[in-house]
TrEMBL record:
It comes from Phialocephala subalpina. Residues 1-19 form the signal peptide. It comes from the Eukaryota. Coiled coil: none annotated. The lineage of its organism: Eukaryota, Fungi, Dikarya, Ascomycota, Pezizomycotina. This is Arylsulfotransferase. Keywords: Signal.
Length: 593
């Protein structure tokens, strides 16, 4: 009996303490879908919603300076969004795109500047897409919208800027083809696949390559089934990545040929093929270097001596024939040999039936997004799992209820032209708090809450400073605080990036979005910057070690619940005694009575 009681307390303590955290850590209930197929995080200072991830494993060997970029979509998401998370899984930026589907969120360079790039459009056209490519600058303003050349639809699979300021894009087009080789007694429709290289500013077509000029329909490993008739174009090739090397040649991946094709950038002729029916390489790894299947995202690595890919190994019709792996191959293009350098296998035996990405990071690690499966994993170069995260419940993997075409890691620095979002709200302990967040702001190091007795005051006093660690930062509002409040966002050099507020506590609402424009270099900001001189805010690790031990102990024993409840009751009683509280609801105006 007593044991049951203690156990119940323990469980309650665990879930109570967990409820405070934005990110789950190795939470089995998460993977059993106890919080839903796609747990999300809500905020109080904004209506934004973001994935609430489960970090299964993390390591100091992972590149923590980079952010994670994903595009969650699927039947369990409320809408398709682009999402940037920090290394710990906290939100940095999220946005939808006019109700369209978003794919392939990357950071790419153009003329020395970094841009967020992605595809958005309609993905319900049979495994590919009809849409446009977008580039957002470091203020999240639209820099360019790019379409395919020749009046064709821009497909979702790839959009890569080259160092020459052109873009490589995938294009799908229905054409008629004699299908007798596949046992059909007629000329029928197929989805042809094109590589286009376009000038992104003029739209001029620089290079075009057509799969059907170089591959026969019978080279495919896909069963034609009932396809090929009118309105049922047969997807024989399914191009899903393009890369261009310094020699000016193209490397493309074909899901249904199970092959990569290396294409001469001058005359478009095939230089070589690896994998599939027309493989030209000798396999020095007992067949494991050339047996990839339904693969995605083929890229050059190590000065074009290595090729990496996301080897699905399976598709929707053959979901269990292999485990999905990342694959790093060493190619000798003179001897025409291929050798496995490393395989990257997820310990959760993921069967990635569609999509997926493979990225070699600058520190040598390999980073994979599992496409149809809501997971991303960072591996050391040799294939050891270093960091592993789920953004959907593992028990539902394969159902595709939440998926992200690719997941990549990049460095990203951005200064949104909005103002920080602020709100006041009661927290779980019934205390009034001031909340602030700023979608997309990457450079905020700390928030400074300031107060004044007059809205137009020249004398704002600092009330509290908090280092930003999560998307939304919470300040407790103390009874001694003045009537008006605002919050400053400071970067690591104590420059003011923006101001959130003004908040009037007696009205219990934000009376102005902001007193100054965060992005304007106008007088207000300059005035504030000049008036500002702050010592660095430091966390005194030494002072709090005993607190941490106590907290750890109370979490472990379940006393935590009791302690926290006691604190709330005590504060509430104190307010009652002072006559400053009525009923359950604490009116912030009363805090100033
Ligand atoms: C860039 O342009 C130069 C000169 O035309 C060409 O040699 C090179 O292959 C191009 N590089 C890419 C990646 O397109
Ligand atoms: C590419 O094509 C050009 C022009 O036909 C030819 O001179 C060159 O040798 C080809 N390159 C390769 C690697 O086949
Ligand atoms: C593989 O990499 C991990 C992590 O860097 C390292 O601990 C391990 O020793 C390496 N294994 C081999 C066989 O090199
Ligand atoms: C803030 O900046 C925007 C864009 O630069 C401008 O349109 C707006 O008028 C500015 N608002 C204020 C209050 O200065």
């Amino acid at each position: 009996m007593r044991f049951t009681f203690i156990f119940t307390l323990l469980v309650a303590a665990a879930s109570y303490c967990r409820a405070d955290k934005d990110v789950f850590h190795n939470d089995q209930a998460f993977d059993a879908a106890a919080y839903g197929v796609y747990p999300v995080q809500h905020y109080r200072s904004t209506d934004l919603v973001s994935p609430r991830v489960n970090v299964l494993q993390s390591s100091s060997e992972c590149d923590s300076s980079l952010y994670t970029l994903l595009t969650p979509r699927g039947s369990s998401t409320s809408e398709s969004t682009g999402v940037i998370l920090d290394h710990n899984g906290n939100l940095i930026w999220t946005s939808a795109w006019g109700g369209q589907q978003i794919y392939n969120l990357l950071v790419q360079e153009y003329k020395g500047q970094s841009y967020l790039t992605f595809w958005a459009g309609n993905d319900a056209v049979g495994g590919h897409g009809a849409g446009f490519y977008y580039m957002l600058d470091k203020h999240y303003n639209l820099f360019l919208e790019i379409g395919a050349a020749g009046g064709l639809d821009g497909d979702l699979h790839d959009f890569r800027l080259t160092e020459n300021g052109t873009a490589l894009i995938t294009v799908y087009q229905v054409i008629n083809k004699d299908l007798s080789e596949l046992g059909k007694p007629f000329v029928g429709e197929i989805w042809d696949c094109l590589i286009q290289e376009v000038n992104i500013e003029t739209g001029e077509l620089i290079f075009q390559w057509r799969a059907s000029d170089h591959y026969k329909v019978s080279d495919t490993l896909r069963d034609i089934g009932g396809d090929g008739g009118i309105g049922r174009a047969f997807d024989f090739f399914h191009m899903n990545s393009i890369a261009k090397d310094l020699k000016g040649n193209y490397l493309t991946s074909s899901r249904y040929m199970h092959s990569l094709t290396y294409i001469n950038g001058t005359d478009g002729e095939i230089i070589w093929i690896i994998g599939g029916k027309r493989n030209m390489f000798e396999d020095l790894s007992n067949g494991h270097a050339t047996n990839f299947a339904y693969q995605h995202d083929a890229r050059w690595s190590k000065e074009n001596t290595e090729v990496t890919m996301f080897d699905n190994g399976v598709d929707d019709l053959h979901p269990n024939i292999a485990d999905t792996r990342g694959l790093r191959l060493e190619l000798d293009q003179d001897k025409m040999t291929a050798k496995v350098v490393a395989e990257y296998k997820n310990p959760h035996h993921i069967h990635g039936i569609s999509q997926g990405s493979f990225q070699t990071l600058e520190n040598g690690n390999s980073f994979m997004g599992y496409g149809n499966t809501a997971a991303f994993t960072e591996y050391s170069h040799n294939g050891t799992v270093l960091c592993d995260t789920h953004f959907g419940a593992e028990s539902r993997f394969g159902a595709g209820e939440v998926q992200s075409y690719r997941v990549y890691k990049y460095s990203w620095h951005a200064w949104p032209e909005t103002n920080p979002d602020v709100a006041i709200a009661e927290n779980d302990d019934g205390e009034w708090t001031f909340l602030v967040s700023w979608n997309g702001a990457t450079e905020v190091r700390e928030w400074v809450l300031q107060g004044a007795d007059e809205a137009e005051s020249d004398e704002w006093v600092d009330l509290e400073r908090i280092l930003k660690t999560e998307f939304e930062t919470e300040f407790e509002i103390h009874t001694s605080y003045p009537r008006y409040m605002r919050v400053l966002a400071l970067d690591s050099t104590f420059r003011i990036l923006g101001v959130g507020g003004l908040l009037d506590l007696t009205l219990e609402k934000v009376i102005e979005d902001s007193i100054v424009n965060s992005t304007s270099s106008g007088n207000d900001i300059n005035h504030l910057t000049q008036a500002w001189s702050l010592p660095p805010l430091r966390i005194e690790e030494g002072d709090t070690w005993w607190l941490k031990i106590m907290l750890g102990f109370c979490t472990f024993t379940g006393l935590c619940v009791g302690l926290r409840e006691a604190k709330v009751v005590w504060r509430t009683r104190r307010r009652f005694r002072r006559g400053s509280i009525a009923f359950q609801h604490i009116d912030p105006a009363i805090l100033h009575a």
